[in-house]
């Protein structure tokens, strides 16, 4: 094996075994290494314990990953990046008091983050994230200062890997805090930021120092000379991987998939270049540590496999699906790459660092390498079983094999640390001894904090109906079963109104590509559900309001919540009787619907033109933000198709073809479109378009009806609630001519800044500020529709929602024709008549009537809450 003056780097002559540098041992660094590695082993042990609890505690998966990466791996990288930087730069050893302070701060910050995210304590999470950023920033400053005035050597560029990695840790900590605190925004933005977080953490904070260190560690483990091109290649690899990671992370954070794929391609090229050099370094000589060599080699292979799979999936899949695909790669990255590289490196380095001489080094190495070949086989077989698309028993078996291999290493590493502690030389220095309580105290604090959190939260996820139904007998209560869907970082419905005393059951289905669960406050929870999985929760008799949420860290803050609101029937009845509209106050929304509209305002023309000639209809729709007057004197920004909310009404006949060119002129977000009038696979025509993109959506109208179209991008509640909807009218064959045809699209109005917390809260709670016809409250009260006595009128009506339907009624008339959802319910000449066209959200139809005499005929949504809050208009009938 080869050495340089300050540590095993594989850059000198192959003249014999390396000796741990005396200046490190004399300064107390060796004793610090020993104590610090106790933290690494403690975090690894806790990660294994948390992994074992995944079936009973869904958040345990997140805990195990972060205990491993933020706890064990971060501690190891902080230790060894400082050590190798000193050795490679031939620099002075930093003040060990500050090194100890940085390490202790980082570990306490990690413990605080785990506890803060788990318990949803925003202040603790923010303070801990800031502490981790501060510790990482101090580590980066130390690495930069080491290079000033240092002699350096052939491998001086490797220290730049450690600096770039530390910058990635800072970025990863900030992104992680945004995800956990709800700062990521909507579902689309959440997916991009989560992917950015995963990439900067796994490929940056961990991947970069591993690649850099391998340039010197790999030849050292093999006991061969380093290739002459190593310095040049290391610079090229850092340029490719660093710039690629920067491009990928920035693009993912902005929701740009293809630029992100290009960045990952650069990273993959850099990793492949490094591996090519490492392969050329291999010779037929016997490695110094065969166990370490094989683990380092297989770990690097798994990195290449994971990066290649990541690139392939980013190149062809939307971000939400790519996010799920990356989750499937986590066993490869976490176990195959990170865990195996950590075990392999420690297998070689611990004997070098902790031994007192060649004989002792051989003894320690023999102990750490005990049974290495079966452990290597078990770990890598487990990774393959967990990563491949095999039935669940195979994946479970794989994770068990990998866990056993990791536990086997821990059982060997603990005796090594204990043995080295007992044999520690007294010449380590009094300063090192004085720091021992701080590091051992930190280790104990980490263990006790996390164990306390495990114990405190382990009892919350009970599925016992007896617990859920406390406070009511439930025996005589009416049982109500509600379908609940988990998808696109939302729970639907977002609000359940139930009568007090109801025995409530929730049938929960995950329709998302991501895994989710549902936890009811002071009640039961589902297990973690994969796509398509369902589970029924029995809440028993419900007597008070509760909240339910997804327990995965960051999902609750990102909006995966549901309110269960209990209504007291007696109180509600009193309120309804007193004010006539279910206790809803139309004055509390701040809108004066009797006020005047702005000067120059024009009502939307409700007259519907006949279907145009020809069988192919070409329309271009531009998605953009537009400021419109949505109520008298009230203007706000809306998300629109064609500059209006609702968008333009399209009309045709059965068999006509529509070619809709959608152009996304929005500079800040993606949009798509879904035409209910067409029948076709949604994968491509309904995909989300990035700003500046366009597509042609082509469909044949095979069925008659009044159809809805709307934005297809999640969260659709927000996109539709902010105006992205419209109507398509397909005439039934033989449709008779009438004197007037009107189209009315009903919807809800949520005032405020689009996408703001206040507005989204109103949407989730279904508490609109007004209800509308054709996008503007009360517009047809001030600008009535026109007709003459004796004329026949047809009213096409579409309920756009996004949450409420309507009961369309014209005061003073009787409908003699009713067409709803593709079928006539009433035709002229029938003995009966109709008074209301009732439509659920997304339904449509038409009614016809003849106005008997001159006068003013109000038309309303006969849900009086809606009518009195904007869903009201007039038909002014003249002689």
Q: What would you say this structure looks like, in words?
A:
The protein has 879 residues and is α+β, with helices and mostly antiparallel strands. Helices cover 46% and strands 19% of the residues. The chain contains 21 helices and 27 strands. Strand 9 and strand 10 form a beta hairpin. Helix 8 runs antiparallel to helix 9. The longest helix is centred in the N-terminal third of the chain and has 36 residues. It is elongated, with a radius of gyration of 33 Å. The N terminus is likely disordered.
In short:
The protein starts with 21 loop residues before the first helix and ends with a strand. It has 879 residues and is α+β, with helices and mostly antiparallel strands.
Strand content: 15-25%
Shape: elongated
Strand order across the biggest sheet? 18-17-20-25-22-23
Radius of gyration: 33 Å
| Structural class label | alpha+beta
Distance between the termini: 106 Å
Question: Low-confidence spans: pLDDT under 50, at least 5 residues?
Answer: 1-24, 425-477, 569-588
